[in-house]
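Dear colleague,

Thank you for sharing your sequence with our group. We've completed the structure prediction you requested, and as agreed, I am returning the results in plain text so they can be pasted directly into your records. Please verify that the sequence below matches your submission; if there's any discrepancy, let me know and we will rerun it promptly.
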Amino acid sequence: MTDTVSTQSDDTRADAPARNQWWDVWDQFKTHKGAMFGAGFFIFVILGVYLGPYLWTIDPTYIDIRARNSGPTMAHPFGTDQLGRDMLARMMAGGQTSISVGLTAMALALLLGTLVGVLAGYFKRIDGLLMRTTDLFLALPLLPLLLVMVMLFRQPLSASFGPETGIFILIVTAIGVTSWMPTARIVRGDVLALKEREFVLAARSIGTRPGKMILRHILPNVMSPIMVSATLGIATAIITESALSFLGLGFPPDFPTWGRLLFDATDFMQQHPERVMWPGLAISLTVLSVNYMGDGLRDALDPRIRGL
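Please find the predicted structure tokens below.
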């Protein structure tokens, strides 16, 4: 009787569907308190900047000279700037631009880095050329290169696509083209290790083509470092865009970003220090939350830490 029950229990466990590994990743991610705080705050920021304008309907470009340089009030919780524009509305509009630049530039850098890393790691004959190119980009000074790109292509792109869209394309491209190198090096190292694994050798022995090998066997197994690079890339892109806007080389003055708001507030720092505080806190806390998310993902995606 006992043997029958035991056999039925084993059959039930065998028939049960296998647990998806992403649930194990989520279980490990939840144990990282900093990562959970970072994810919650980042979601809060995204909801605030994209859904907030539907609740706070003041136009961020509306000028009210009579209310200029006023402190926090019920009508303007974050105060107003030197032209009487509502700072809360401009913070939400600036957040939309900064986060959009961060996500788009991260996607471009991730695409370039993954492509270079996979090709360099899988095809030995082009490994040297691609890695020396990566080393060349790493040796270039980032900020002067960005300044040169902005100065060269600002006017042509603005004339072709308009001031806002042209500058957006320029900033995203400049950040993406100058930040793909760490991802490429990390992905290349993982691909070099994967090439010697048994399942790759078995797939190669039955005549699997390189393109199919990369898409079906290599890329799914390098998603862990790619996802971690994605989170850290968002933070890097937001800081870089803010630095360019703070230097006055980003978006036009009437097109708010967090960096531009910080630049505009420096002339009034002593009289109205809160105007520097709001965009500075937004940049710092958003970047900090994304970094915590990256730490949590790195731990959650490591099977040794998950105990598998």
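Summary note from our side: The mean pLDDT is 83.

Kind regards,
the structure core
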